Amino acid sequence: MKAMTLKENGGIENFSLSEIEKPEANAGEVLVKVKAISINPVDAGVRRDNATLQRMLRPKEGEDTFILGWDISGTVEETGSGVKEFKKGDDVFGMVNFPGNGRAYAEYVAAPANQLALKPKNVPHEEAAAATLAALTAWQGLVTKAKIKKGDKVLVHAAGGGVGHYAVQIAKSFGAYVVGTGSSSKRDFVVSLGADEFIDYASEKCENKVKDADIVFDSIADGEHLLRSIDAAKKGGSVVSIKSNFGDEHLKEAKTRGILTFRILVQSNGEDMKQISNLMAEGKLHSHVSAKYRFEDLPKAHRQIETGKTIGKIVVMV
Length: 318
Ligand SMILES: NC(=O)c1ccc[n+]([C@@H]2O[C@H](COP(=O)([O-])OP(=O)(O)OC[C@H]3O[C@@H](n4cnc5c(N)ncnc54)[C@H](OP(=O)(O)O)[C@@H]3O)[C@@H](O)[C@H]2O)c1
Known about the structure:
By secondary structure, this protein is an alpha/beta fold. It has 11 helices and 16 strands. Strand 10, helix 6 and strand 11 form a beta-alpha-beta unit. The longest helix is centred in the middle third of the chain and has 13 residues, at 133-145.
């Protein structure tokens, strides 16, 4: 089968389009014929960093290259023993083995069945593939950790990016009042997702406009920004950080002001995928796919995600 292998950490020139052996579905796994893959900033981060590459993606015995990637949508070709929930021919999507070895940059992926959900019939594979790592992060931050509820005021930073555009829609689906931030070019897009207000981070400070958020969802790599997010939350509210760690200074400030802090790393989870699938089937959650790449152009998708300016999601068609 075709796979995009990485010989070592570094630039996109280390990728090669290769022929490797097709995997088999072990017990509890399904073999998925992949139709679309989504690309996230973490894909590029792991590609660059040797320590993370070695820790997360141990090559199989006899292999001397790595296979990156976690986010897939495709069709079940074979089921391993003990798999009851899916059968050959089902269209499924999910984030495979994150944080670990997903091996998603390939024509076939052996995936634990309990990490997948059925793809809604009204959603094409590229939009399903997109709604995996990024959508799960938004779900696990807002729902699992911050326990979002109707009427909450939710401040979503980077609302026009991959995670942010799902966070806005998930928050709206719970009946929240949503304020999104982004650069001015993203205003119309973020409002079209359902955000009630938009803050252009280049010209306005979010904490001057929002001081009573029940939940602040922060994806910015900057400790100073996290302090500002704590400033924007109300007493009893929550700040969810998916990028920066809370240091002593943040924790002290949050404690003084009675604010809960959650630093999360997304985890593969089939039950959460089912919730995402349901929202998509009901038309309450959409993927905005701003670019589609051919499989052989996957390295170009890495270049795009590294700009940090992507609108919604980008996917690779297999
Ligand atoms: N912890 C986890 O499990 C987890 C999971 C997923 C992602 N992440 C991390 O979360 C971050 C976002 O991921 P993503 O997939 O959404 O990335 P993305 O698709 O590249 O989107 C990033 C967005 O950030 C916006 N942005 C940049 N600086 C900003 C600022 N100061 N204020 C507001 N918006 C700003 C950019 O839009 P503009 O053009 O408007 O600047 C862009 O739309 C990445 O660092 C990623 O590694 C963590």
